[in-house]
């Protein structure tokens, strides 16, 4: 039995606790079916990691391994694989229903894996998959934004300085939308502007007065990347008749959809793990999206959003990354590379 290094947990604890994430040695898996076995070169940390890890009364008998952003090299392919071969450089977000990528080797279904962009390194690539898939699906699948003619159309991105927002700004500009981003601090406002937003407003204040001051009576699309409950009333007020709102943040209470009724406005969720969790017939679309994003990165249309790289990949450093995310101070993506 071959062992590999990993970082995981048995108990769900505050990140200040040493046992919240621990260094492990676990069995190295083998590729079967349509799985590829990837030698992990770099990972990044996302809010979903901290949500899964948050304190709860539950003890795992088998270590739970987190991590849903990976860049690496294909070590082995299952007998049903047709998309990849040994030695291919790849990047992907994986699925919430299987062990995560915070391990030296990782099994993943090839249908949700993309070819790594050639022009960037593994750390830069590891910053991209989950946020790129979320931004792309939110804009072009859930909101139905056209990739061709969006002249005169606008989108409001709430929480635009985060990982998803940093990609969504660039994709929305690529599609020809006028982009208004929200931010609340000088440094996050600068990042939103640097990524290409046409205007920036503060999400701690009512949206519509700020939009009007910036020259927008209403917006065609709203993509909420921050607390849905907190912003719901302002979103309903700011959306145009027949406009569309998408959110990636779950709510603590039922939403009052009535304000959208007379506007015939649409509300839709985006959950990046839907396709892989339910193994939908179009699951392979994530393979295609990641390949398209790689082409956009290689053509310099989209820039990677890595902001901080830590080494090595171990429990101590991943705890630091979780703590920074939970503090709400992270800008861009935190990446870890190299197992020692």
From TrEMBL:
Domain Enoyl reductase (ER): 14-336
Protein localization: Cytoplasm
Primary location group: cytoplasm
Family matches, as InterPro entries: ADH-like_N, ADH_Zn_typ-1, ER, GroES-like_sf, NAD(P)-bd_dom_sf, Quin_OxRdtase/zeta-crystal_CS, Zinc-ADH_QOR/CCCR
Pfam families, alphabetized: ADH_N (PF08240), ADH_zinc_N_2 (PF13602)
GO cellular component: cytoplasm
Keyword flag Cytoplasm: yes
Alphabetized GO MF terms: oxidoreductase activity; RNA binding; zinc ion binding
SUPFAM superfamilies: GroES-like (SSF50129), NAD(P)-binding Rossmann-fold domains (SSF51735)
PROSITE patterns, A to Z: QOR_ZETA_CRYSTAL (PS01162)
Keywords linked to the UniProt accession: Cytoplasm, Metal-binding, NADP, Oxidoreductase, RNA-binding, Zinc
The organism's place on the tree of life at top rank: Bacteria
Family listed: Belongs to the zinc-containing alcohol dehydrogenase family. Quinone oxidoreductase subfamily.
Subunit structure: Homotetramer.
Name this protein carries in UniProt: Zinc-type alcohol dehydrogenase-like protein
Lineage, highest ranks first: Bacteria, Bacillati, Bacillota, Bacilli, Bacillales
